[in-house]
Amino acid sequence: MNPITFKDIYNAGVVASSSDTYTHFHLPDMPLYYDSNYIAFLKMPTVSEFQKAEHALKIYHTARGQHHLKFTFPQDEPIPKELNAYLNRHDYDTGFLELYILDPKDFPDVPPSSAIQVTPVTMSNLEDFLYLQRTIDEQFGKEFAAQKQLQHKKNFSDPNVVQLVANFDDELAGSVDLMVNEHTVEIDGLHVLEKMRHKGIGSQLQRWLMEQYPDKLVILVADGEDTPKDMYLRQNYKFAGYQYETVKA
């Protein structure tokens, strides 16, 4: 198996155009979802190359009522000073993501909890799952949450996606999407309601995954400047690379 990279991370967007310099992804059903509507540079651009891509994306998004610009850069490459200065001058918000990998046998021993129930989403609990997702997504706006509901329903019908919901004492507490591939399972959208945090719910969601897919590598992407990545390091996930991205909205 080839090394795991950011190219292995799930992207709901489809290729709108491509060149030797970049690939442009677009998700028509969710124009507000930045992570599927962006340009991914295949090589680190010069300022001039970035400006050309920026102009093309602005025209494309404006024609479709989209008001953001997002770009990702090649894995494990820092943004050159000249380009970084341009991004700062033009009010881009630049950060980085980190890729983590875990062999399930290295996941810490987590005993089961009688208070926490983790179950796959089926027709019987789909409405509960969608309600939970709407509660989570509405922090980004009601229109975004409405668009995201369509994606959740698509994922429910996708045989390569497993959706999990966790209850704490029979109350909705958290959820996660698992993107199942031949050699990997990707953790996507792991979320625990704020009032339910620090009860071990995230660990129980992962415990279910480790038991169900012991022969696949577990992969995920975390914000390089956020605290959840510290939890993954404590759980024996291994750092596998970083990727810069920049957004203007």
Task: Describe the fold and architecture.
The chain has 2 domains: 6-97, 3-Layer(aba) Sandwich (Aminopeptidase); 102-242, Aminopeptidase, CATH 3.40.630. 29% of the residues lie in helices and 31% in strands. It has helices at 47-63, 81-89, 126-137, 142-157, 201-212, 228-234; strands spanning 14-18, 22-26, 38-41, 69-72, 93-102, 116-120, 161-168, 171-180, 184-192, 217-223, 238-248. α3 packs antiparallel against α4 (142-157). The termini are far apart. The relative contact order is 0.20.
Query: Helicity, in percent?
Result: 25-40%
Q: How many discrete domains?
A: 2
H and E string: EEEHEHEEHHEEEHEHE
Radius of gyration, whole Å:
19 Å
Mean pLDDT: 96
How many H/I helices?
6
Task: Give a summary of the structure in a few sentences.
With about 250 residues, the protein is an alpha+beta fold. Helices cover about 30% and strands about 30% of the residues.
Topology:
Blueprint: E1 14-18, E2 22-26, E3 38-41, H1 47-63, E4 69-72, H2 81-89, E5 93-102, E6 116-120, H3 126-137, H4 142-157, E7 161-168, E8 171-180, E9 184-192, H5 201-212, E10 217-223, H6 228-234, E11 238-248
Parallel strand pairs: 3-4, 9-10
Antiparallel strand pairs: 1-2, 2-3, 4-11, 5-10, 5-11, 6-7, 7-8, 8-9
